[in-house]
Amino acid sequence: MYFGLFLLVSLLAIVTSRAVLGKWFNHISFYFTLWAAMVSFYEMKLMAYFDLSDRFWLAVFAGSLSFLFGSLLYPAIKKAFEKNKPEETESDPLYKIFFESDSLLNNIILWCSIIGIVSAIHHWMVLIDMFGSFTKVLINYNVIYRLRVENKIEGLIPYAFVMAFVGVFFAGIKVAKEGKVGLLSLSPFIGVMLRELAKVGRAGILFAFMMFISVIFLSRYSIQKNSHQKSKSFFNKSSILPLLIIIGLMIGSAGLVRTFRGTFESYKAAGSSLNKTAGGFFITPSLYLYISSHAGVFSKYLDKDYDKDFPPGETTFFSVYNILSKFDFVEAPEMYDKGFFIPMWSNTSTVYRYLHQDFGLLGLFIPPFLTGLLASFFWVRFYERGKISDLLLLSYIYIGIGMSFMILVTKISIWLISLVAVYLIIRAVQFHRNYSARVFTPIKSGS
């Protein structure tokens, strides 16, 4: 009953969002499509999953409806207080630079890609130096995973890897601008995938893909109004092959991580049809577990009593707690979460687990409401003013929404670090433009 009701609410929310925000791709449709897909995969019961509890559905409805209400509130208030149609505003000159200067955009993407790739290669060299050879690194993937979890891999270049994600952001703008996916636009993903393979992780690949898709669609919606360039469809034949290549490489990278980490694919609780895929590379029982188990883990979390008290906002403000722990002001926050058997063991959960863990019942209402409100605020403001800073903040909110079915994105260090890095690059471009304008503007002689 709850499942069918949630699908109905999701459908109504998506249709309503199209009427209110004017586009099919928006934060409301993005959220409800992903969540409807995740719970649908769970309810397929290709594994012998436990039934989702009433507490789970009440929590999900509370968070989802709060997000929906917050998303619809700002457009409604703005419309109610607008007596006249707002005047057309000229787009931000800085925004136009990124859309109209090919050399600027290409150089940023190229150098970010190079730095990201070099950083990832250095990561691999550190691992090869530790274990003796590339083959031994692959053999010891489980050991490397444990060392990474325990933060015991030394000698890495701090934060340089984040430039690959910065490159993905600007690559999204390039794709929106040109209407096609080229090799330069895909180059930042090389650094992302090499790094994730080195650190035996997969979250960064999903993060980069969410960023890429969000920036493309958000930029495409604004390109006609805020640029002299005519809109082009990027769903064309020339884009099909590069897109298939990047999607294949991303799935392949995740598959390699699973393969060399030694993930056990023969799940006793998996159905016969799913176990037939156990020897596969792309579609496997562990992949099904990875995309569907979050609902079950959250449901089990709500049914269990913890013997540990979590500091308020420890997950939401993970980076702050982590920095304070370096000075012994607080205990170091735990990076990896307690897992549950559903009946297979898994510890990846939904955003609502962390919000409930941090703030109790209020976490299921206030943070989702504020997320929806801010998303709509920056959505409206971006398409009215065309400011690059609004695009930046909006796209990073979308990343959080896109990953909400499995994690609270502020717990991932690359979310905050890459956000700051992109902002600094934007400000550097603005400073250079203003400086050049002052230096090369001719001085008018007096009469």
Describe the structure.
- This protein has one domain.
- Strands 1-2 form a two-stranded antiparallel sheet.
- 68% of the residues lie in helices and 1% in strands.
- The chain starts with a helix and ends in a 7-residue tail after the last helix.
- It is mostly helical and 447 residues long.
- A hairpin with a 3-residue loop joins strand 1 and strand 2 (345-346).
- The chain has helices at 2-21, 27-43, 54-81, 93-100, 102-131, 134-139, 141-149, 162-178, 183-198, 203-226, 237-261, 272-275, 285-303, 318-326, 351-359, 366-385, 388-402, 413-440; strands spanning 340-341, 345-346.
- Helix 1 packs parallel to helix 3 (54-81) and helix 8 (162-178) packs parallel to helix 10 (203-226).
- The protein has 18 helices and two strands.
- Residues 276-282 have low confidence and may be disordered.
- The chain is globular.
